[in-house]
Amino acid sequence: MIAVKDLKKVYHQANREIRALDGVTLEVPDDSVHGVIGQSGAGKSTLVRCLALLDRPTSGTVEINGVDLAHVRSSDLRRARRRLGVVFQHANLFDSRTIADNVAYPLELAGVERRERAAKVTELLGLVGLGDAAAAHPAQLSGGQRQRVGIARALATDPDVLLCDEPTSALDPRTTDEILDLIADIKARLGLAVLVITHEMHVVKRICDSVSLLEAGLVVESGPLAGVVGRLGGRLSEMLLQLPPAAPLPATLGATLEVLDTTQPGDTAALTAAERHFDADLPVLAGTVEHLDGTTFSRMRVLVPPSLDPAVVVSHLKGLGAESTISAPSIDEVA
Ligand SMILES: Nc1ncnc2c1ncn2[C@@H]1O[C@H](COP(=O)(O)OP(=O)(O)OP(=O)(O)O)[C@@H](O)[C@H]1O
User: Fold this and answer.
1) Number of structural domains, the chain?
2) Per residue in 53-96, pLDDT tens?
3) Which atom of ligand 1 is found nearest the CA of 42?
4) CATH at residue 317
């Protein structure tokens, strides 16, 4: 379990205060993956550095299973770091060492004796699907395989939590999915609390149980995946269920609605039912469907013909279980 409370990191630069983290609070239970997403400059790297004990926070706590690691004495830092496995964007392997020796490195630092090290390395390489690559060197491996080595190395000291900093940003889409599935599999097998820093919505959708949006050093939205996606108009909902930008429509065509439908698809879907009720077409101008956490989310931009009052359609859709709002202004209103 990771519990971050009111974490602050202030940098001072030429008489200027930079509040890279301005009071971040979040929790990651065991056996779950929490995603932190944010744009460049939001504070993601600072958060990882503070959590990985590579940098000291200005204030706040970072508890791993109830023990605050943010304030351990410098002499205890190395031991405290063993409780955290860290996976970076690039595995940064030693080119001159074999794969087995790369994975063994943290065990050497921890003073684990040779035979125990060898057994642990064999177990870890098996866990990440590289059982037959022990004697190879990093240059002989693909990017995805190198990242598997990075994950095995992060797990070498039996950490309580796994921190992943943009773990798939340097990989192609197929390899990305393989690595994400491996992280999810390891989480389930070892019951780890996993925190993934990413700017990719795909990562959140594929493996995260919960997610936080970081902005200017603050968590501005957070919650279980299905909860944040189902919040019509929410920032995370819009990011995770993206629609293309709307071209303004002439007002004569009608009004547009943003609809979020979580009733299951099929002929009972709210939109189809509303079309029947009003005996009118409600054309979908843009739409996206995601299956997340056992729920199907359909976000649509829908045209309401001038013959219907959009507010009445909104209210009817609500009765059918779909949230909606009157959205884009028509071109006449813009003018
Ligand atoms: N060592 C430092 N000294 C001064 N300012 C810093 C330092 N490190 C980060 N910052 C500032 O803190 C803020 C957060 O930076 P950070 O690198 O954590 O963001 P990020 O979300 O990781 O961005 P990116 O995705 O581009 O890496 C930025 O305004 C950055 O300029």
Assistant:
1) 2
2) 889 999 999 999 888 988 888 888 888 888 899 999 999 999 99
3) 21
4) 3.30.70.260
Domain identity same for 216 and 324: no
Which of these, 204, 78, 94, 79, lies nearest to 149 by C-alpha position? 94
* Final residue in a domain of this structure, among 181, 212, 233: 233
- Taking the CA atoms of 49, 54, 60 and 61 in sequence, report the sign of the dihedral they define: positive
Compute the distance from residue 42 Cα to the ligand 1 centre, in Å.
7
207 and 62 in a single domain? The answer is yes
In which domain, by residue range, is 269 found? 241-334
Atom 13 of ligand 1: nearest residue by CA position:
20
Q: Ligand 1 centre from 19 Cα, in Å? A: 9
pTM of the prediction?
A: 0.91
67 and 20 belong to one structural domain: yes
The residue whose CA has the least distance to atom 3 of ligand 1 is 11
Beta carbon of 54 within 6 Å of any ligand 1 atom: no
Q: Give the tens place of pLDDT for each residue, 107-151.
A: 999 999 999 999 999 999 999 999 999 999 999 999 999 999 999
User: What is the residue with the minimal CA distance to atom 28 of ligand 1?
Assistant: 41
Query: Domain holding 174: CATH number?
Result: 3.40.50.300
Does 268 have pLDDT greater than 80? no
Is 13 a pocket residue for ligand 1 (Cβ < 6 Å)? yes
Q: For the chain, what is the radius of gyration of the CA atoms?
A: 24
Is the pLDDT assigned to residue 335 strictly greater than 50? no
pLDDT band at 334 (very low <50, low <70, confident <90, very high): very low
Position with higher pLDDT, 21 vs 83: 21
To which residue do tokens 């594929």 refer? 206
The pairing of strands 210-215 and 32-37 is parallel
* C-beta of 14 in contact with ligand 1 (< 6 A): no
C-alpha distances out from residue 147 to 89, 125, 165, 205, Å = 8, 12, 12, 20
